[in-house]
Amino acid sequence: MLAMLTRTANLKSKSVALVVFSRGERRQDDTLPVMDLGLIHTGPASGTIATCTMCSQRSRHDTVRRTAEPPAHRLYAKLLLTPNEEKRYLPAVEADIHAYQECATVLREELRQGIIRLPDQSLADGYNTRQAMGYNYRNWRNFFNDRQLLALGWLQEGIVRLSNAPTRDAFLILLSGVLEFNNMFASYKGEGTGAVRHMFAHHILKPERTPIEANVWGTPKSSGSFTHPFQVPPAARSGLP
After folding, report:
1. Which of the two residues, 50 and 28, has the higher pLDDT score?
2. Is-above-0.70 flag for pTM?
3. Is residue 50 part of a domain?
């Protein structure tokens, strides 16, 4: 699986925002309906106003400031890579939700047991950080969902156990670059030039309404993954054994 698309939940009501998909059509080689990509951004938000799809109540952006947590997100679509390396866009199904929930459970347990460690650093007040803090992103850990934290935590723990110091340092630098593409401020850029737009693409820290969860490890068609930038130029890997 290349990527999962998520959508900000409606903060005014307890129900998440409904996402409109086409009924889809079946091709002879398909086992699941094809999603109409023209509708993936259909939703209840317009500018600073959000309209609840359940009760039609309208609320402004500052609603989130009355809560203690960053905006919640709802998984609604996925991009698959077939064995023939063809990309297929499909709506998320119950199994996708369950897989994410399993990752969240594993994350909590491994943190409890001390198997993986995650940073716990608050954002310092500044011009750009206030843009994120206004949406209750007050800790850098808030920038990632549970599955991203689990995958990145596994990578970090594996890297720090490497005995060769130059290799370990090079991989840690690589991991720091991967963080830019694997967080809930990254967005979908499209085809051709790499699908993931990293969090600093616009030199701001504006929360994404429809962030993308990319494949952290990577596939032959991935962008911003751990294995993709590993193909570093010779000058960068001159210190490696």
Report:
1. 50
2. yes
3. no
